[in-house]
Structures are given as C-alpha cells and as structure tokens.
Write a structure and sequence with these properties.
117 residues; mainly alpha; 5 helices; elongated
C-alpha cells in the first residue's frame, strides 16, 4: 500500500513539474512574439459616427421596427441591437456599429472627414 501511495505521489509530482515547465515555455514564446508587435503597422484613424448621424440612424431603425428607444444620439446597447437586426435584414456585415457601409445603406450623409477615410 505504501508503494502504491508513493508511486502515485511521484507521478503527481512529475506531471505537475512537466506542466509547470510547459507553461514557462509557452509564456516565453508569447513574450517573444510580443517584441515583434512593435514592427506591425499602426492602426489608422477610427471611423466614428457623429451624434447627429446616430440620431438619424435611431429614427430609421425606429421606423423599420428594429429599435424602440428614443433618439438620444448615443450608441447604447439597444441601438447596437437594432443595428445588428438592420444589418442582418439588409444583408450587410453585422457589426452593431454605425460604420460607413451601414450609414450609406441608410442614406445618411457622411461628413468630409468620414469621406476622406
């Protein structure tokens, strides 16, 4: 009985040691790839809808039955849910955001800055 218990403890210790060593190797490899991230291209400007565009979109979503809230001009959770339904119905990429494609599909005019992006 003592031999079995000793054997089990030895196996447990061996497996935990192996797992710990593998975890160190994985972490050191991840750190190596992080140093390469400095060479990646920086992200350009982010496309953002204006408050007025959000209000217009909320009105359109409300007319189409995808949104029941008020026209606040804030991209809240209910607005995002309505946008996802709208995007799915219009067969455009479902993101839940007011991106260029969604604004254009809704017929909402882009600003000069948005057109330049």
């Amino acid at each position: 009985m003592k031999r079995v218990l000793t054997f089990l403890l030895l196996m447990f210790f061996t497996f935990t040691t192996i797992a710990a060593v593998q975890g160190v190797n994985i972490n050191s490899q991840a750190g190596a790839s992080d140093s390469n991230s400095n060479t990646k291209k920086k992200r350009g400007p982010v496309f953002r809808a204006t408050k007025e565009q959000i209000k217009q979109a909320q009105a359109i979503l409300k007319q189409r039955g995808f949104y029941n809230g008020e026209q606040t001009g804030h991209l809240d959770a209910d607005t995002r849910a309505g946008l996802k339904k709208y995007q799915g119905a219009e067969q455009i990429r479902v993101t839940g955001t007011l991106n260029r494609e969604t604004l254009q599909k809704m017929g909402i005019e882009l600003t000069e800055r948005q057109r330049a992006m």
